[in-house]
Amino acid sequence: MSLDWLRALGLLGFGTVIFLYHWNNKLILLVHPNYVELILGSATILALLGGYYFFRTLKTFLSANKRHASSHQNFHHDSHVHTHAHHSHVHTHAHQDHAHHGHAHTHTHQDHAHDTSTPHVHLFSESVSIGLLVVPILMALWITPQPLSSQTAVMRGVSYEMTGFQSQQKQQSFGVPPEKRSLIDWLLVLNLDPEPANYKNQSVNVQGMAIFHEDMPENHFMISQFVVSCCVADARPVGLLVQYDPNTQSVENGKWFQISGSIEEGQIKEQRQPVIALSEWQEIAPPETPYVSL
To answer: What 3-state DSSP class applies to 10?
Structure first.
């Protein structure tokens, strides 16, 4: 397959993969929602360029085949017409051809050495460029994007910090009744006023992914969500500690739960922190958009 075909199919494939991800609700697992339209616009341009190169290459290919067929037909016609003339002069030119054979052979080798220096380098560099475009397409078709896991959250470190949110957003979360606050609302409120005594016995009803880690206190887990600024590369896990009874309350690492309880004061690593005392819990399916956007 020529490089022109690979270029066309590569651009078409790249645009198609992006549209397939969007159609299957997988694109939202990779980028911030605000950038989806921009990415779809870029995918449209790639697909249009790929279509242009495809039809241009197809036209060139068909024209070359047509010329080849026409030349082949003319060659047979001319060979038939000049057969007798060729035989009548063959002996006359035999000695002349023999006399000049050595000279022609010398120039052939010189021309060959001169013409094969640059094209190979150009061909190699263009092949690498096309390969860099085609390989990610094949990988994207083979690998389906998945939401970030609890293992990723542990590796990146779950935090209470809500940097990146505007103070206005934090103030709005204060106005939400405690029992109706989301996990992010609670974290924004606690970032403004971290004193746990101010929230003692307030009702909590939030959802998120359960995360266990050996560094956490005994009989505790984190209820967590990922916050995304641009794409999954900068996604960071945030969450609250939950105190539970492992003998009567079954919570599995990495699963999503809807939990209810109340805010209590906990002593974590000699620091006073707000902790959710778990009273009710129910496993739920992960949301289609599992990340929170700044």
So the answer is: helix
Closest by alpha carbon to 29, among 133, 140, 134? 140
Q: What's the CA gap between 11 and 277, in Å, rounded? A: 53
Q: Which fold has domain 150-293?
A: OB fold (Dihydrolipoamide Acetyltransferase, E2P) (2.40.50)
Residue range(s) of every CATH 2.40.50.140 domain in the chain: 150-293
List, in sequence order, every beta strand (DSSP E) within 142-269: 203-211, 220-228, 236-243, 256-268
The torsion region of residue 225 among left (phi > 0), alpha (psi -120 to 50) and beta comes to: beta
Exposed/middle/buried for 68, CB within 10 Å: 0-12, 13-18, 19+? exposed
Give me the tens of pLDDT residue by residue for the chain, a chain 294 residues long: 567 787 788 888 888 899 999 998 888 889 888 889 999 999 999 999 989 988 988 888 888 877 777 766 665 555 554 444 444 444 444 444 444 444 444 444 444 444 444 455 455 566 676 667 677 777 777 888 889 999 999 999 988 777 766 666 777 888 899 999 999 999 999 988 889 999 999 999 999 999 998 888 889 999 999 999 888 899 999 999 999 999 999 999 999 999 999 999 988 777 888 999 999 999 999 998 889 887
3-state secondary structure at position 82? coil
Tokens (6 digits) for 16 = 């198609």
* Helices 3-23/36-81 angle, 10° precision: 150
Q: What is the model's pTM?
A: 0.70
